[in-house]
């Protein structure tokens, strides 16, 4: 059960990104209003804005924290074609603004000629490195050779992706067996552009990043991409936000089988694909152990996905965006008494073949929220738009389709593939 | 490629009928004629870079001017067609090097250009000869930056030049009618007389107003409430610089208000600021605005060349352009090098900034979009080649963006004053473009409306566009491409409430304690015992810890490990596979034989094979065989409590990467690297050799990273210490320096030995036996005396005073 704590962000335009720091006690938000805000968690659990400053002269798309070993460091990227690195200065000029910390710009990375759409620090074991990607399709990797000097960044690599890039993700694995790897997603919407996710791997011999894989099945614009925290796994899990949520696993094929020196070959499987958002999916984010994936879409909901022991991914929760109580009228399915008892059936129907199955968490009756916090509702997910005809089990879903409500159909097996 | 031309709502009548349809002296302020504008996004190559463009009133022709180009193009449906080259003559003069061009909005035959050599030329297309040049005004001394026709008066032309002068020409006369300049402000309008001492000689003045070097051009005075600037503003002068005028009679101080302070002093003193733009007001017959390089904007009455009506500082740095709103009488948009576009309400007493748009580069041109009250188009003069259309109410994100040009865009013009969809542009890349608004890329549409981040403890931060989370049903279903053609978008209706302004709701979903937060991880990490006791005890302890935290599967694993490794009979049986079926209320798992139904046949032998090949192979095999095994050490669980939990203990050697745990009731599990590392440490040598060094290292680094995230520094250090991997155990030996001071002279010990550099005595002498301590040295932090651990312990049994005799009551922790 989640408690929604709404925060008066006071950004003057859309917030495009939120990011927790390494220890989960600080949060940074960035917005089209060209500013970044830093929020600190108090003892009581409230979030207080401790810094807010204008970072760019355009929309700030992304903000990300560096590992605290390098100090309190943020990187931001913007429509104004730059990325910037910021450091918090402690003990200076605090008297000017009470309780406001002071962030100074350490560097501006101006190599891009177009909007810089994402910025990510590399995993700590690689040193102080930063990757940016831009709308002109170039991924740039910078390194601060001296970690004490944040104002000096040298451009190490420029990787051309040929497609307008929208998001990048470093492979977080700290294993020596895994070369540095970066996945790039594209939101290029031109019809002829094909695969939207490319994976580049660092080659020790050539000292360059080379394309290791292209996910040919992802052809719709990709808005976010995230490797799961690795935690000692020998393979990688990659989540992709496109018109649906997709989860891929990438298993490195043993080195002996590949020609030495070439890029690692991967065995790629799609392990889940969910269109429950019924719309564009904008963000995906993994929990700390890489076992739960959160996704958010145009439906304004956050959905949580989790695999069971069968490697069968399913929805374990839905959070309404603003934590507001759910309107009873439009969610009549909630109050349907048949839903509760149907849960065991659903569980039994889970098996490994289909990606569009889901799981209903037990429903709690909506509790009235206080002014500042209310219980986020765990909504039953609506049925997927496309029901696979092979899914005989889904016919057991005793769940009224919202659009079929008017038909007052008895709760017996739904006919397959009705015009949904 | 672009879709077929569409009818534009609200437009009727056919333009492009040619000049015959022109009606003299009538403004093209009514709607389009008999038909809609048609066309597509297109471009044509010019011979040379363009500096400026201007559209004919019939919206069917455009003139392009540059240093070496001056041509008229007809805008046809599919292409631009060159109609006329105005650069004639064998030796083009500098007069043809155009900085600006303007087409008269009433007379289709009349054009004016501003030449870089300071000449203003008018052109009459009606002339029968090849040379259409009409009049030549050579009054400016430097480049003319801007020419502007009066919107309703056929013969009035205004020019603004780098030399600081604006000149108004009557095309029926050979020279300018009047000259406006900032200089004029000082000469005529600034008949400022020091109000406190109108007749007093300078000496007296000096007393009351701190005068600094009256002989110089700059005089600093301290004003008072009664000292007012007569130039344009009603505010008292206070601590400003006033320039005395050369003609000032002794004893009189003349000057103007502080806004002139930014005027250059020194060699250029007295010279006016360069004029960057002049624009006649569309609504006020006599008014025009001018912008200057020093950031000022002036408002003039064309009949009053002696002084400007109003002056204010609009930008920090040069103001490159301005544009009057076509409908809103008082609105003036200005753009400057400071990357801002500001919209001023000029109807109020003092120019009020009503909107401010922040662009990403200096603003070279600004043009209000027809029929869209809040839209304006901008382009930049450096760095940025794009043209942006902004909604001034959403000042941070451009509403539309045209990205066709490959070099700086120098001129933009809306094709027709009542058509919002056609924009023309000229560029330094020698192209002329027509942009259709519906083909523009829309950063707003592409911008990500949501932010989502998983926190450390399982909490989620979520920021979403308010409109997304406010409505119950969410937005439209996915329809392929988000960039719909224009006719699916909202119609451009000024009365419609503004929907573009967006804000986000930010919330943090905090996980409730106990319901799957990561607290189990912290508790487990802190309470596990990893070393220092016999294996059986460690396993029992850890099993107990896990059970107390409700993690029964983990507890069972520990119990199993104990059984396997601490029972001598089983410990030798190294290649058995165990599958433990357990009842729903099992206390201890039962050892059953391997369940072949669930697992691939021959897994037992496979496993042995795996061991030699490394665990990657074993993963593959296990995954292929049963799809049960996700990861090396992923602690899998299921919510299906009825499912009989098959408990596979991979092999007896305890490769914990093959321990697969089903957790019947508890959600929110993890890739359990904690288990893997703990088992690795506890079992020590028993398993270490079976797991590839690299994998071990990977587990350690992952676990340590996780511990550090939760600030479990002690546990992390313990793990580092207990690890046998060399790469790991050196982790806590880096970047740690121990500074030692001499116990006698209290100075830092600089040399590496035991002898202090300064007092030449051994620093670490045992206070009991008076020998140098090599090895464990324990000392009291209060008096810094100490010695061999054994000696001190012995000493303290008898006395609590310092053995050195300093009288300190020593405390050892």
What is this entry, summarized?
The complex is a heterodimer of chains A (420) and B (813). Chain A has 420 residues and is mainly β.
Structure in words:
The complex is a heterodimer of chains A (420) and B (813). Chain A is 4% helix and 40% strand. With 420 residues, chain A is mainly beta. In chain A, strand 10 (116-121) and strand 11 (129-134) form a beta hairpin. Chain A is globular. In chain B, strands 2-31-30-29 form a 4-stranded antiparallel beta sheet, with no helix packed on it. In chain B, strands 3-4-5-6 form a 4-stranded antiparallel beta sheet, with no helix packed on it. In chain B, strands 7-8-9-10 form a 4-stranded antiparallel beta sheet, with no helix packed on it. The longest helix of chain B is centred in the last third of the chain and has 17 residues, at 693-709. At the A-B interface, strand 1, strand 2, strand 3, strand 22 and strand 23 of A face strand 32, strand 33, helix 4, strand 34 and helix 10 of B.
């Amino acid at each position: 059960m989640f408690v929604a704590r709404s925060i008066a962000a006071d950004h003057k335009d859309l917030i495009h990104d939120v990011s927790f720091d390494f220890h989960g006690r600080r949060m940074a938000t960035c917005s089209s209003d060209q500013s970044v805000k830093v929020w600190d968690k108090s003892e009581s659990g409230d979030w207080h804005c401790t810094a807010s400053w204008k970072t760019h002269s355009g929309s700030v798309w992304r903000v990300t924290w560096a590992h605290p070993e390098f100090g309190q460091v943020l990187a931001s990227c913007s429509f104004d074609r730059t990325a910037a690195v910021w450091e918090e200065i402690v003990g200076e000029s605090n008297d000017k603004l009470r309780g406001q910390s002071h962030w100074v710009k350490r560097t501006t990375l101006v190599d891009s000629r177009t909007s810089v759409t994402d910025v990510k620090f590399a995993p700590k074991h690689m040193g102080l490195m930063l990757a940016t990607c831009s709308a002109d399709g170039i991924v740039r990797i910078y390194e601060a050779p001296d970690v004490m000097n944040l104002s000096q960044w040298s451009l190490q690599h420029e990787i051309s992706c040929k497609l307008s890039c929208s998001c990048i993700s470093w492979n977080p694995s700290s294993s020596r067996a895994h070369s540095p790897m970066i996945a790039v997603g594209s939101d290029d919407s031109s019809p002829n552009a094909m695969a939207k996710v490319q994976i580049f791997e660092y080659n020790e011999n050539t000292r360059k990043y080379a394309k290791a894989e292209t996910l040919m099945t992802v052809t719709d614009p990709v808005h976010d991409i995230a490797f799961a925290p690795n935690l000692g796994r020998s393979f990688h899990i990659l989540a992709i936000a496109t018109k649906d949520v997709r989860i891929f696993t990438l298993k490195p094929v043993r080195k002996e089988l590949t020609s030495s020196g070439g890029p690692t070959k991967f065995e790629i499987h799609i392990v889940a694909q969910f269109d429950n958002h019924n719309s564009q999916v904008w963000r995906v984010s993994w929990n700390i152990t890489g076992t739960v994936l959160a996704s958010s879409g145009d439906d304004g909901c956050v959905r949580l996905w989790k695999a069971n022991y069968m490697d069968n991914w399913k929805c374990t929760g839905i959070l309404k965006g603003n934590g507001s109580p759910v309107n009873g009228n439009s969610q009549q399915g909630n109050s349907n008494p048949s839903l509760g008892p149907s849960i065991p059936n659903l569980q039994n129907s889970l098996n490994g073949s289909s990606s569009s199955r889901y799981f209903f968490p037990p429903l709690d009756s909506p509790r009235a929220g206080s002014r500042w916090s209310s219980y986020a509702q765990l909504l039953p997910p609506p049925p997927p738009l496309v029901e696979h005809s092979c899914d005989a089990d889904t016919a057991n879903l005793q769940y009224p389709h919202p659009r079929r409500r008017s038909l007052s159909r008895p709760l017996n097996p739904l006919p397959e593939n009705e015009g949904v | 490629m672009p879709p077929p031309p569409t009818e534009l709502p609200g437009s009727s009548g056919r333009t492009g009928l040619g000049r015959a349809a022109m009606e003299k002296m009538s403004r093209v302020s009514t709607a389009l004629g008999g038909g809609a504008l048609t066309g597509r996004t297109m471009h044509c190559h010019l011979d040379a870079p363009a500096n400026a463009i201007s559209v004919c009133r019939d919206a069917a022709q455009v003139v392009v001017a540059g240093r070496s180009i001056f041509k008229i193009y007809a805008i046809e449906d599919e292409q631009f067609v060159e109609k006329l080259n105005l650069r004639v003559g064998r030796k083009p003069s500098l007069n043809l090097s155009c900085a600006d061009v303007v087409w008269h909005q009433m007379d289709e035959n009349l054009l004016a250009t501003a030449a870089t050599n300071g000449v203003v030329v008018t052109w009459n297309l009606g002339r029968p000869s090849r040379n259409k040049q009409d009049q030549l005004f050579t009054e400016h001394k430097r480049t003319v930056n801007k020419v502007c026709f009066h919107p309703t008066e056929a013969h009035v032309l205004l020019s603004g030049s780098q030399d600081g002068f604006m000149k108004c020409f009557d095309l029926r006369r050979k020279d300018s009618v009047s000259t406006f300049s900032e200089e004029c402000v000082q000469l005529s309008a600034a008949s400022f007389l020091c109000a406190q001492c109108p007749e007093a000689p300078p000496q007296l003045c000096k007393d009351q107003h701190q005068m600094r070097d009256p002989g110089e051009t700059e005089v600093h005075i301290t004003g008072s409430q009664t000292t007012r600037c007569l130039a344009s503003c009603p505010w008292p002068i206070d601590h400003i610089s006033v320039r005395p005028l050369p003609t000032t009679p002794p004893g009189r101080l003349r000057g103007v208000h502080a806004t002139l302070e930014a005027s250059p002093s020194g060699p250029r003193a007295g010279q006016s600021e360069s004029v960057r733009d002049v624009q006649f007001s569309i609504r006020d017959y006599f008014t025009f605005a001018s912008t200057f390089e020093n950031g000022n904007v002036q408002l003039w009455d064309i009949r009053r060349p002696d002084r400007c009506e109003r002056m204010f500082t609009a930008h920090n740095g040069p103001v490159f352009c301005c544009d009057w709103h076509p409908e809103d009488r008082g609105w003036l948009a200005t753009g400057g090098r400071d990357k801002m576009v500001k919209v001023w309400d000029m109807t109020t007493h003092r120019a009020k900034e009503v909107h401010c748009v922040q662009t990403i580069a200096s603003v070279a041109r600004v043009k209000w979009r027809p029929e869209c009250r809040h839209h304006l188009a901008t382009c930049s003069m450096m760095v940025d080649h794009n043209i942006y259309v902004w909604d001034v109410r959403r000042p941070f994100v451009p509403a539309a963006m045209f990205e066709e040009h490959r070099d700086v865009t120098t001129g933009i013009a809306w094709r027709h004053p009542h058509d919002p969809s056609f924009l023309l542009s000229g560029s330094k890349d020698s192209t002329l473009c027509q942009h259709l608004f519906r083909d523009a890329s829309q950063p707003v549409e592409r911008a990500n409306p949501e932010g989502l981040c998983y926190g450390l403890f399982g909490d989620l931060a979520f920021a979403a566009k308010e409109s997304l989370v406010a409505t119950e049903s969410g937005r439209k279903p996915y329809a392929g491409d988000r960039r719909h053609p224009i006719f699916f978008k909202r119609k451009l209706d000024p009365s419609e409430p503004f929907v573009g302004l967006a804000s986000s709701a930010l919330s943090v979903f905090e996980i409730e304690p106990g319901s799957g937060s990561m607290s189990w991880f912290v508790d487990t990490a802190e309470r596990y015992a990893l070393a220092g006791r016999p294996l059986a005890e460690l396993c029992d302890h850890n099993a107990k810890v896990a059970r107390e935290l409700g993690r029964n599967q983990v507890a069972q694993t520990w119990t199993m490990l104990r059984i396997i490794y601490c029972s001598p009979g089983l410990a030798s049986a190294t290649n058995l596979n165990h599958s433990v079926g357990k009842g729903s209320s099992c206390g201890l798992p039962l050892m059953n034989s391997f369940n072949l139904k669930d697992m691939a046949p021959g897994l037992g032998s496979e496993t042995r094979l795996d061991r030699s090949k490394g665990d990657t192979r074993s993963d593959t095999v296990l995954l292929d065989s049963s799809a049960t095994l996700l990861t090396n050490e992923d602690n899998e669980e299921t919510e299906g409590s009825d499912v009989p939990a098959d408990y596979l203990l991979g092999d007896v050697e305890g490769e914990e990467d093959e321990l697969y745990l089903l957790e019947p009731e508890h959600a929110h599990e993890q890739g359990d690297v904690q288990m893997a590392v703990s088992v690795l440490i506890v079992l020590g040598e028993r398993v270490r050799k079976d797991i590839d060094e690299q994998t071990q290292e990977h587990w350690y680094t992952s676990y340590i990273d996780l511990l550090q995230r939760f600030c479990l520094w002690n546990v992390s250090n313990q793990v580092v210490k207990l690890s046998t991997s060399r790469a790991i155990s050196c982790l806590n030996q880096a970047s740690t320096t121990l500074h030692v001071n001499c116990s006698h002279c209290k100075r830092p010990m600089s040399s590496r030995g035991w002898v202090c550099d300064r007092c030449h005595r051994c620093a670490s002498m045992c206070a009991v036996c008076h020998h140098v301590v090599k090895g464990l040295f324990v000392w009291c932090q209060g008096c810094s005396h100490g010695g061999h651990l054994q000696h001190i312990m012995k000493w303290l049994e008898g006395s609590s005073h310092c053995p050195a005799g300093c009288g300190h009551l020593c405390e050892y922790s």
